[in-house]
Specification:
The chain has a six-stranded mixed beta sheet, with helices on both faces. It has a five-stranded parallel beta sheet with strand order 9-6-7-8-16, sandwiched between helices. The chain has a three-stranded antiparallel beta sheet with strand order 2-1-3. The protein has helices at 17-23, 44-47, 52-63, 69-79, 112-116, 119-129, 146-154, 173-180, 196-207, 210-218, 231-250, 270-281, 297-304, 329-336, 341-354, 361-364, 377-391, 397-413, 431-438, 451-458, 485-493, and strands at residues 5-7, 14-15, 32-34, 91-95, 98-102, 135-141, 160-167, 187-192, 221-224, 260-265, 285-292, 306-308, 356-358, 370-374, 419-423, 478-480. The mean pLDDT is 95. The longest helix has 20 residues, at 231-250. Helix 1 (17-23) crosses helix 6. With 495 residues, the protein is α/β, with parallel strands linked by helices. The protein has a domain at 91-110 and 232-458: Rossmann fold, CATH 3.40.50. It has 21 helices and 16 strands. A hairpin with a 2-residue loop joins strand 4 (91-95) and strand 5 (98-102). 43% of the residues lie in helices and 15% in strands.
Length: 495
């Protein structure tokens, strides 16, 4: 199969996998999607005998078909190494009636490490393949985790620069300090006086600014993205759903062919879309359960077929999900339209102009794989408390959103399908909220003061990512208004 990538907003815009990784976003503002979905070439039973690295190669070679075997294996080898604190790279832990897929064993203790550890290698390899001599500037918005993981991945990578925008006051103390203390002469962090959606919109506008693009090219610079709008971020995320299913086979919890549920705490829709892509490869999936916090724009979408971002933005204890514009949903919308890029473009234009769009009745049938659910702050805290009390398992706030949604779903439906919950961050990233849920005496105590207490309660070794973080020097202190994001980028790059 000669797979290529096309834009969700103009199917005529077609590029290779490496070109899609380099560009990040299509020139028309659309997202790159594969021309068709490949199928796994080995059985899932065969894959169950493989390591994570071997599984990664089996999955990624299907999507990144213009990489040679040597190139792709080299990227995988460099990515999944001692940066992770477990040889398995991620862990599938059985707790009570559910399996938590711990995706936070990387350098920045969040699931973003699973993809952002390999993206710099994919990007620099893509540049060589396409004879790109320009400096590549990674321009990214973060709701808390992508920024640190991206900077850690790209720090001091030759030929690259990275600029991360985050909502000042909209991330946890640990998340912010992780970013502000990031080393690397090519790393830049900017807080904005807005929310994540403002940051994401500002970044997209810079990608689509043709005048800015020309000025950058005249200086030998081009933009790319580390957000999950980049297909080089999305494809590595597909791997861990295939790996999770294969672990269930290996541990005798399912037979090859049995269906499973995946429950994913969701903000920008990239992580659950990766699970959907895994299903297209051949992983037997019953339901993809999309778990939202109080910013439940996706829950309402799955209930009504209307995507409406015109609502109050709520700051929660799961800040990486405090998002009202779920960019990756565009890739699913494109499939729901029957791959009609003009209809997709019209819907995205409606979202930008009017703050909403609505699925046509025939499109709603395409949502059959998905179930939406949401949890409020009280329910999330109760889930952390109850799972700890009953099972002595400690989870972070984002995982707790998913866990609460799943247990409410199971109580309502009686669905006893074997279920995997994506555990997206270490509890150490959100120690105040986690410990406050476990014991009220910790409510409001600073994250850093609770790290030792959390260590005693959870019995989990304090990760290198937070050990000594409080004392780490602040190396970045730039803050700007949302309207000044481009001006700030121009200043950093000397335009």
């Amino acid at each position: 199969m000669s797979l290529f990538y096309k834009s969700t907003r103009n199917s005529e815009n077609q590029v290779s996998a490496s070109q899609a990784i380099l560009k990040g976003l299509s020139d028309d503002g659309g997202l790159f999607v594969p021309s068709e979905f490949p199928k796994l070439q080995l059985s899932l039973t065969d894959i169950s005998k493989m390591s994570y690295k071997e599984t990664a190669y089996e999955v990624m070679k299907l999507f990144l078909n213009d990489f040679t075997e040597e190139e792709l294996k080299n990227c995988i080898e460099n990515a999944y190494d001692s940066k992770f604190d477990t040889e398995n790279i991620c862990e599938l832990v059985n707790v009570g009636d559910v399996n938590y897929l711990e995706l936070y064993h990387g350098a920045t203790i969040a699931f973003k490490d699973m993809a952002l550890s390999i993206l710099p290698h994919l990007l620099t390899t893509s540049a060589k393949k396409n004879n790109i001599q320009n400096k590549i500037v990674i321009l990214t918005a973060t709701s808390g985790d992508t920024g640190k993981a991206a900077m850690a991945g790209f720090a001091d990578v030759p030929g690259t620069e990275i600029i991360v925008f985050y909502p000042k006051g909209g991330v946890s103390r640990v998340q912010e300090k992780q970013m502000l203390s990031q080393t690397g002469a090519n790393t830049h962090v900017v807080g904005i006086t807005g929310n994540f959606d403002d940051a994401q919109t500002g970044v997209k506008e810079m990608f689509n600014n043709k005048d800015l693009e020309e000025r950058l090219l005249s200086k030998g610079i081009q933009f790319s993205s580390a957000n999950s709008i980049n297909i080089g971020r999305l494809v590595p995320q597909v791997v861990y759903y295939v790996f999770a299913y294969s672990r269930l086979i290996k541990e005798g919890r399912i037979q090859d062919g049995d269906k499973v549920n995946f429950v994913v705490p969701t903000g920008n829709f990239g992580n659950i879309l990766a699970a959907f892509y895994a299903k297209q490869l051949g992983v037997p999936v019953n339901k993809l359960i999309c778990a939202s916090n109080e910013n439940k724009v996706l829950f309402d979408f799955f209930e009504t077929g209307i995507y409406d971002r015109m609502r109050d933005f709520i700051l929660t204890t799961s800040p990486s999900m405090d998002i009202l514009i779920s960019s990756n949903l565009e890739r699913l919308i494109y499939l729901l339209t029957g791959e009609d890029s003009s209809v997709t473009a019209d819907m995205m234009n409606s979202l930008k102009a009017n703050g909403k769009y609505e699925l046509k009745p025939e499109m709603k049938a395409g949502l059959a794989d998905f179930i939406g659910g949401w949890s409020n702050e009280e329910r999330v805290a109760k889930e952390i408390h109850d799972v700890y009390e009953n099972e002595k398992y400690v989870m972070d706030t984002h995982t707790a959103v998913a866990s609460a949604v799943y247990h409410d779903y199971k109580a309502k439906t009686g669905d006893d399908t074997v279920t995997v919950i994506a555990s997206t961050a270490s509890p150490y990233k959100f120690a105040t909220a986690v410990m406050g849920a476990i014991d009220p005496k910790y409510v409001g105590v600073d994250d850093f003061k609770l790290i030792d207490e959390l260590n005693k309660v959870a019995g989990i070794t304090i990760p290198k990512a937070v050990d000594g973080l409080l004392e780490a020097p602040v190396l970045h202190n730039t803050v700007c208004e949302t309207a000044d994001m481009q001006k700030t980028v121009e200043g950093i790059l000397g335009l």
